[in-house]
Write a structure and sequence with these properties.
Helix content: 10-25%
Number of helices: 3
Strand content: 25-35%
Strand order of the largest sheet: 1-2-3-4-6-5
Number of strands: 8
Radius of gyration: 16 Å
Largest sheet: 6 strands, antiparallel
Structural class: alpha+beta
Distance between the termini: 24 Å
Length: about 170
């Protein structure tokens, strides 16, 4: 399954359509990306058991991190549990890609929200900033540092809470 590819993935080349994680679960990505970072593409994913997730694909040859660094980051991500941090689900290595499978946060980013609505009402802004700061405070309590704090990395959950995506090694 790890080698199954279809067209798709400009930034990351041909992105595998399906991946098998280390728990032996199979995840299928959507046809079109839902987001992109500097060295990654994010797709909506569906587990064989029905769970919707976000699947973040990194082209192995373009990542600055070694395989050991990636494994260390996954180990760290797997232990983070907080309402204001995007949850890690699983990961996968394919011959060409490293894939982080994480909670799908459907409300979009703070950046997108600001583009769509302009200046936010003060009450909403205070709540969103509180949520983001709670997530960052938790990361710091775990001796972790977020390497890329920006509105595009603060995601709005459908329950109205913001969740910073945890990033450490600058993936």
């Amino acid at each position: 399954i790890a080698g199954t590819t279809t067209a798709g993935g400009g930034l990351c080349g041909k992105v595998p359509r399906e991946v098998r994680d280390f728990s032996d679960d199979v995840w299928t990505r959507s046809n079109d990306p839902i987001g992109a970072g500097g060295v990654s593409e994010v797709y909506l994913g569906l587990g064989h058991h029905g769970l919707l997730v976000a699947m973040k694909f990194f082209l192995l040859e373009s990542t600055r991190s070694s395989t050991d660094d990636l494994k260390n980051e996954v180990e760290l991500l797997s232990h983070l549990k907080h309402d204001n941090i995007v949850s890690y689900v699983e990961c996968s290595f394919t011959p060409t890609h490293f894939v982080i499978i994480m909670e799908y946060v459907s409300g979009g980013s703070l950046e997108k929200l600001l583009r769509q609505f302009g200046p936010l009402p003060l009450l909403a802004l205070k709540k969103y900033l509180y949520d983001i700061l709670r997530g960052l405070e938790y990361l710091h309590s775990q001796k972790s540092v977020h390497c890329d704090i920006k509105p595009g990395n603060a995601l709005l959950h459908n329950d109205g809470d913001f969740r910073p995506m945890a990033r450490y090694l600058g993936l």
